[in-house]
Amino acid sequence: MYRDYLNSGNNPGEIYAPDRVLPQGETPFRDEYEEYIRAYPGRGTLKVQISVARGAFPLKNVLVDVSQIYNGVRYSLYNDVTDISGIVDNMVLPARSLESTLNFESSQIPEAEYLVTVFHPDFREMTDCTVVIHDKTETILPVSLVPLTGEREDG
């Protein structure tokens, strides 16, 4: 799926993300999103750190997609590529408010869960890693990718 998003740029190893990739912070479901943010008025941030060799080396130009399934439909909220430090950060996402966790009625609302998928053409894709976002908190998701080492998808 993400292989369709990406084309190699003029420089080897450089990833180009076409127009279908949303600018950071844009959302494709405005009406449903308004309903969602009323239910989840808190805000937390997500930082994704991509590396190889068990965290020894950061990996740049990795596509990071943050999605959510809402009312049975999957929505992509953020698409970005990692910087030279292997990081995509400052992704502000709705979360349960801190106050709602103290109220029994609103405590029945589930935590805000998001799905993170990362892709680089030279590494195994990691799909749908679930991450929970909490109000007024930065959540850091470290991901260590595994090289393809000559494997081919077409058999």
List keywords for this structure.
disordered N terminus; four-stranded mixed β-sheet; mainly beta; four-stranded antiparallel β-sheet; Immunoglobulin-like; 9% helix; 155 residues
Explain what the structure shows.
The protein has 155 residues and is mainly β. It has one domain (2-144): Carboxypeptidase-like, regulatory domain (Immunoglobulin-like). Helices cover 9% and strands 43% of the residues. It contains two helices and ten strands. The protein has helices at residues 2-5, 30-39; strands at residues 7-8, 15-16, 42-52, 57-58, 63-70, 73-81, 87-95, 112-119, 126-133, 138-144. Strands 3, 4, 7 and 10 form a four-stranded mixed sheet that branches. Strands 6-5-8-9 form a four-stranded antiparallel sheet, with no helix packed on it. Strands 1-2 form a two-stranded antiparallel ribbon.
